Amino acid sequence: MKISEANIHQLRTSEISTLIRAQTLSARDVLEHYIHRIETLNPTINAVIFSDFAKARRTADEIDTRIKDGGQLGPLAGIPMTIKDAFEVEGMSCDVGLPAYQEYRSSSDATVVARLKKAGAIIIGKTNTPYLCSDWQSYNSLHGTTNNPWNIAHTPGGSSGGSAAALAAGMTPIEFGSDIGGSIRVPAHFCGLFGHKPSFDIIPVRGHVPPPHGAERGSDMNVVGPLGRSTEDLSLLLDITAGPELPMASAYSLALQGPRAMTPTNLRIGLWADDPYCSVSNQFSTAIEKAAVELEKQGAKIVKIKPPFDLAEYTTHYRFLLNAAMSLGARNKTLHTEWIRTKNQSGQYLKAWMTLFEQIDVLFCPVSPSTALVHTQDPDFASRRMLVDGKDRDYNDNAVWPGVASACGLPSTVVPLAVAENGLPFGMQIIGPLFEDRTPLCVAAMLETLGYKQLIAPDYAD
Fold first, then answer.
1. Could you confirm whether 163 is annotated as catalytic?
2. One of 17, 51, 84, 106 is an active-site residue; which one?
3. Is the Cα torsion angle 430, 279, 308, 351 positive or negative in sign?
4. Would you say residue 1 has pLDDT above 50?
């Protein structure tokens, strides 16, 4: 590709970084490119809800000066990016759609933000979320509705929907979200992107809202992780942000083991492309099976597996945990013995997963029953419906497939698969063993080399 300021947003993050370091492009050039795209495209998409371009310009100029002076640079030096509004960024908003937080400005950075900045990233703005990050769509009374770049009548997903929409429209090269019920994975699936839900607690969540501002600890299910245009971006951001913080960091460090397989040879793929309890679009199951077969042609083995649990019972278990985690004070409303019983059951489920991962290396399964939903904003969740292959379905079925990984804290990487007949993209999740995040990421990279790349909305291809 011929490099010009007009196509910077088509480059990988590592390519932009290389050009900045070589002074082929300046950090200021790159920043102005993304500012221009935000100013041009955001009025239609409504993904970026707060920005500080003046501070970003000063930071970019400082980075350019350091480069000219031969100073030390981090791996993201000069890379501008937006970030989900749920993360505290000093001087920026962090209201997550809650009117009581409307005038709030953060006085410090979330751990993730501090690590991204230390690596050289320039945070240029915040992206929209649903109210308190609690929906599979992204709209609220303060900032309105975020639209999907593929079709503005549809949602980009939630709760990292603003993140995914900004990334899909080329308003940022990378993004960072959070996930408790599919909030990274569903937006990636709805927008044709890559996304990674890490193993529980390997990336600190301090500075994520909710819980309330200033809380040192969030729920025991929420994780934070990257969205990107490539698996390379996901791995880069994972490496930058993973690991304990003080005081734990004074006692131990994180050393994620390498992937179980570097190539498809001898890779064991478990296939769970559909389930009668929560059936998905026929196009999804066919495409998931096809992706497995493509790797099989390269030497992988498809293992016929029986899930280690009944999906209906597992989902009931997961929803109990999800509802408690999403509701402040929920544990005070729940009998302590019931909570302990449920957590003990989680341990039994995790043992079943560990046994399954002795037979397979990764599990291929859906993310959601459908492509991106039409904007559906009935305040009564119980009344919301969606269509899957023309059939009326419960809106809350969106929780089922994300829960497969979330209930036991497993890592899951979303890979774009294809564009559906309705013109919207879709993907699948690759679930790996607990704390073996590099395995699903590596398998996603294998698929990327076979042509499973970011799916770009036609209007944003150039």
1. no
2. 84
3. positive
4. no
Does 199 qualify as catalytic in the annotation? no
- Answer yes or no: 343 catalytic: no
Q: Please report which confidence band the pLDDT of residue 216 belongs to, taking 50, 70 and 90 as the band edges.
A: confident
Mean pLDDT computed over 217-223: 82
Give the residue-averaged pLDDT of 146-156.
Answer: 98
Residue 36 above 50 pLDDT? yes
Task: Kindly name the residue from 183, 230, 235, 285 that is annotated as catalytic.
Answer: 183
Give me the percent of the chain exceeding a pLDDT of 90: 89
pLDDT tier at 456, thresholds 50, 70, 90: very high
CA distance 152 to 432: 33
Give the pLDDT of residue 331: 47
Ranges of beta strands (E only) in 102-244 are 122-127, 139-140, 144-145, 174-179, 194-197, 223-228
Question: How far is 202 from 225, CA to CA, in rounded Å?
Answer: 10
Residue 214 has pLDDT above 70, yes or no: yes
Give the H or E element holding residue 345.
helix 336-356
Question: How far apart are the C-alpha atoms of 27 and 61, rounded to whole Å?
Answer: 7
In the predicted model, is pLDDT for residue 345 greater than 70? yes
Q: How far is CA 351 from CA 181, 201, 229, 408, 439, in A?
A: 21, 19, 34, 10, 19
Contact 148, 155 (CB under 8 A): yes
The token pair at 114 is 């501090």
Residue 302's H or E segment, with its range, is: strand 301-303
Domains in the chain: ranges and CATH: 5-250 (3.90.1300.10), 268-460 (3.90.1300.10)
Residue 4: predicted pLDDT: 61
Query: How far apart (Å, rounded) are the C-alpha atoms in residues 444 and 462?
Result: 25
Which of 26, 93, 159, 178 is catalytic? The answer is 159
Q: Check if the beta carbon of residue 125 is closer than 8 Å to that of residue 46.
A: no
